[in-house]
């Protein structure tokens, strides 16, 4: 058996990822991918607004996480309203997740140099949220492909 097919069955991973019949049954941390997209998008919007207000509203760049979160929320809404096209909307969403992860990578430079300013913390939060979200989406897409292949083979 392919190692990637066995991975979710490891006892320490069973609560993180649940694989069942089709893509709509895939969950990560107990959430479907469209729901996870909504939660991550909302968290990014809250992060952006929170850092903007928390830093005295001096720089619009504090809102950058919100600019990544709003499209995620929109893609989640579209995937929920158009379930027959959810794969399309989720593929667009994962692009924003990956961009969030890459944009958050700038915080690593601040971490290495010891600069733990608000911008570094915000970037590191983007790095973590974008990375975990992108990982969840990739696992979901892999699961959907394997489920489709298994259905075609049957």
Largest sheet: 2 strands, antiparallel
- The proportion of strand residues reads under 5%
Q: How would you write the strand order of the largest sheet?
A: 1-2
**Taking Cα atoms only, what radius of gyration do you get, to the nearest Å?**
17 Å
Count of helix runs: 6
Q: Could you list the spans in which at least 5 consecutive residues all have pLDDT below 50? A: 1-15, 17-23
Kindly name the structural category: mainly alpha
Number of domains: 1
Shape: elongated
Series of H and E elements = HEEHHHHH
Helix content: 55-70%
Mean pLDDT comes to: 87
Number of strands: 2
Oligomeric form: single chain
Span of the ends, CA to CA = 17 Å
Structure description:
By secondary structure, the protein is mainly alpha-helical. The protein has one domain. The chain contains 6 helices and 2 strands. It has helices spanning 3-6, 33-54, 64-81, 86-104, 106-113, 118-153, and strands at 17-18, 27-28. Strands 1-2 form a two-stranded antiparallel sheet.
Quickly list its features:
mainly alpha; two-stranded antiparallel sheet; 6 helices
Topology:
Layout: H1 3-6, E1 17-18, E2 27-28, H2 33-54, H3 64-81, H4 86-104, H5 106-113, H6 118-153
Antiparallel strand pairs: 1-2
Helix pairs in contact: 2-3, 2-6, 3-4, 4-6, 5-6
């Amino acid at each position: 058996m392919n190692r990637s097919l066995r991975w979710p069955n490891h006892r320490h991973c069973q609560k993180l990822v649940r694989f069942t019949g089709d893509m709509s049954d895939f969950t990560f941390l107990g959430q479907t991918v469209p729901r996870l997209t909504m939660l991550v998008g909302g968290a990014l919007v809250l992060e952006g607004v929170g850092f903007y207000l928390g830093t005295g509203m001096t720089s619009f760049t504090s809102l950058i996480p919100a600019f990544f979160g709003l499209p995620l929320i929109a893609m989640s809404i579209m995937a929920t309203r158009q379930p027959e096209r959810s794969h399309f909307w989720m593929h667009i969403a994962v692009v924003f997740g990956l961009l969030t992860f890459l944009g958050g990578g700038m915080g690593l430079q601040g971490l290495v140099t010891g600069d733990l300013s608000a911008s570094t913390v915000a970037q590191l939060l983007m790095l973590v949220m974008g990375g975990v979200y992108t990982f969840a989406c990739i696992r979901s897409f892999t699961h959907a492909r394997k489920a489709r292949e298994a259905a075609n083979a049957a």
